[in-house]
């Protein structure tokens, strides 16, 4: 019988999909959450509950995030507990292109990658492009505006959570491999195109207004440093994601 898998952030968007996928594969999954009643109660900042959650775990999949604010100390606490427990494999989900962007969140993700690589714990790190859910959330946040504002000249390669969960499930079943090939969505589209698809799917007739944004970060976006064209391995396209969310057939 295989040892259980601990998923940090198991109640989040990706964590829920991954947990369901692993259980469908017949794996025993422990969900780590700060909220009692959702699995193994634990705190990645204080370390409370981690030793019990990690006891006997064969793999830890680290999906939890504080959106960068405290990800580094949380990772340090998790790694210290994982070393005590003798965890044989830690899997981390990161973001394509984080080396090239000056965002605080991206710098934090890179710092966590480095902590894991230097921890002495056998590990696998997977970088993925932006999730469909994130793109949809950004568009939804503008629902009260008369127009949809988007950055001009910027392309995205969004990937579906089921595709990310499938790749992580395969990683969990294998041996630690360090940094593995990136995972990108199956298509690259401009943000303008994606915004128009979102508006059509939600029945909105608002115009899309592209704005050319200044700065190093948006120049890097326009240069496509966040894309993985050689690893367009995802299967779910954005239209399918929208169809699932809105109930409208994809075009």
TrEMBL record:
The lineage of its organism: Bacteria, Bacillati, Actinomycetota, Actinomycetes, Pseudonocardiales. Pfam families: NAD_binding_10. One of its GO terms (molecular function) is protein-containing complex binding. It comes from Amycolatopsis acidicola. This is SDR family oxidoreductase. PANTHER family: NADH DEHYDROGENASE [UBIQUINONE] 1 ALPHA SUBCOMPLEX SUBUNIT 9, MITOCHONDRIAL (PTHR12126:SF11), NADH-UBIQUINONE OXIDOREDUCTASE 39 KDA SUBUNIT-RELATED (PTHR12126). Residues 9-133 form the NAD(P)-binding domain.
């Amino acid at each position: 019988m295989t040892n259980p898998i601990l998923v940090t952030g198991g109640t989040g968007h990706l964590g829920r999909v991954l947990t369901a996928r692993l259980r469908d594969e017949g794996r025993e999954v422990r969900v780590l959450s700060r909220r009692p009643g959702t699995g193994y109660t634990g705190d990645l900042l204080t370390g409370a509950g981690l030793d019990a959650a990690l006891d006997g775990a064969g793999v830890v999949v680290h999906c939890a995030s504080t959106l960068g604010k405290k990800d580094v100390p949380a990772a340090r606490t998790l790694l210290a507990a994982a070393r005590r427990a003798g965890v044989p494999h830690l899997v981390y989900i990161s973001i394509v292109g984080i080396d090239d962007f000056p965002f605080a969140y991206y710098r934090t993700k890179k710092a966590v990658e480095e902590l894991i690589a230097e921890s002495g714990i056998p590990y696998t790190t997977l970088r993925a492009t932006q999730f469909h859910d994130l793109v949809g959330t950004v568009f939804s946040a503008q629902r009260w505006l008369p127009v949809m504002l988007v950055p001009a000249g910027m392309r995205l390669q969004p990937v579906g959570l089921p595709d990310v969960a499938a790749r992580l499930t395969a990683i969990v079943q294998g041996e630690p491999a360090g940094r593995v090939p990136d995972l990108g969505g199956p298509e690259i589209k401009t943000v303008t195109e994606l915004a128009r698809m979102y508006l059509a799917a939600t029945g909105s007739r608002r115009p899309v207004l592209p704005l050319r944004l200044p700065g190093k970060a948006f120049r890097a976006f326009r240069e496509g440093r966040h894309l993985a064209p050689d690893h367009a391995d995802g299967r779910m396209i954005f239209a399918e994601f929208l169809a699932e969310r809105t109930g409208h057939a994809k075009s």
